[in-house]
Design goal:
This protein has 9 helices and 15 strands. The protein is α/β, with parallel strands linked by helices. The chain is globular and about 60 Å long.
Length: 366
């Protein structure tokens, strides 16, 4: 197998056309046998092994856009002796004989729907790529999404509508599939290394404007908002013992309104982020709503555990000419899935957070 440029370092937007492209969903990407695994070495960064999907050329070669969700290497691939890739590929079970546009991922996760699903759809705004808008969209599924679009989450339907895509037109690739003619836009998103802001954010601004075009706004926009996770189920909160209620109290005393995003419509969330001056919250997908920010001036304070403090939100704020700052909690996690690990905050750390947040609100860099 040819190595290809898997690390996503190409810095220009492009669209690749493949004849007889091969798409392998993660459930079909069976692990390699142990005798091959023994020769496996850690691949060059930022590549990493995890369950994932795979896109190959007709010659079964890897290329720059082969990995979905950026640098995730599926179980069927292995980097042998630090020299070449090998793979155990399943047989093709399905064929699509028409021109298609590769979306990449549609899933039930709100955060990934904001940052992954639009990643390859920036050509929809480009006049030169207008013919692509008429192609059949195809996508891998993610986070348990089904093939029946009628039962997809409402926010997925709304986001697709903001992109002028009809869910009924999208085919989820659920089996190893060969597509006779596939157009593959370069992946552009804050998630990962190949982040090129303008095409992605232009698309999100267009989407946001469409989604709130008929929204009836409140008389007075919220200017200071704390996005709380305290009413999520225990498995989703992250912060243990519901101590976020004590964090909420800190921000209430600083004039913030406590908002639970899951209780708001998507339109109201977009409106809030477009009009707020200060946003705070614990690390999580609710903060990604800042991708809809349409003007400079937003300031974000994120409370995050040291073991899971990715840069997505700071990238998003930088793209909209805002500023973000983190209050990092010293914590460790032995969990296999870092983003689902539990963490805690001590009384002393709460006092430090109160001091930090007060200085931040006052405009003094803590």
């Amino acid at each position: 197998m040819a190595l290809g440029n898997l690390d996503g370092t190409v810095d220009k937007p492009f669209v690749i056309h493949l004849n007889h492209a091969i798409l392998i969903p993660e459930k079909s990407a069976a692990p390699l046998p142990d005798r091959v695994r023994k020769k496996q070495v850690i691949p060059p960064r930022p590549l990493r092994y995890k369950r994932g999907n795979l896109l190959l050329t007709s010659g079964k070669d890897l290329f720059s856009e082969s990995l979905t969700r950026n640098a995730i290497i599926p179980d069927c691939l292995s980097y042998i002796d630090g020299k070449f890739w090998t793979a155990k590929l399943p047989a093709i079970e399905h064929r699509i004989n028409e021109d298609c546009l590769f979306i990449e991922l549609i899933g039930r996760s709100f955060g990934h729907s904001l940052l992954d699903m639009p990643a390859r759809l920036w050509p929809l705004l480009e006049p030169m790529f207008e013919p692509l808008q008429k192609l059949k969209p195809v996508s891998f599924g993610s986070h348990g999404i089904g093939m029946n679009y009628k039962i997809w989450p409402k926010f997925v339907h709304m986001l697709l509508d903001g992109l002028n895509l009809r869910p009924a037109d999208i085919e989820i690739i659920n089996h190893p599939t060969e597509i006779s003619s596939l157009y593959v836009p370069r992946r552009i998103t804050p998630l990962g290394t190949n982040h090129d802001a303008p095409p992605f954010y232009d698309l999100l601004q267009s989407m946001g404007a469409k989604l709130i075009a008929n929204y009836i706004a409140p008389t007075t926009p919220r200017s200071r908002i704390y996005l709380s996770r305290s009413r999520l189920d225990e498995a989703s909160r992250g912060l243990e013992d519901n101590r976020e209620l004590e964090i909420e109290k800190i921000f209430l005393d600083l004039g913030f309104e406590i908002v639970h995003p899951q209780l708001l419509s998507l339109e109201e969330q977009i409106y809030n982020i477009r009009h707020a001056d200060l946003i705070a919250g614990c690390a999580g997908s609710a903060l990604h709503i800042a991708v809809f920010r349409a003007k400079p001036g937003l300031h974000l304070l994120r409370v995050a555990p040291a073991f899971h403090n990715p840069p997505w939100d700071s990238k998003i704020l930088a793209a909209s000419q805002g500023e973000s700052i983190d209050f990092t909690i010293s914590a460790e996690s032995g969990a296999r899935q870092i983003n689902k690990a539990k963490w805690s905050i001590s009384d002393a750390q709460l006092r430090d957070l109160a001091t930090f947040a007060t200085a931040w609100v006052a405009g003094v860099k803590p």
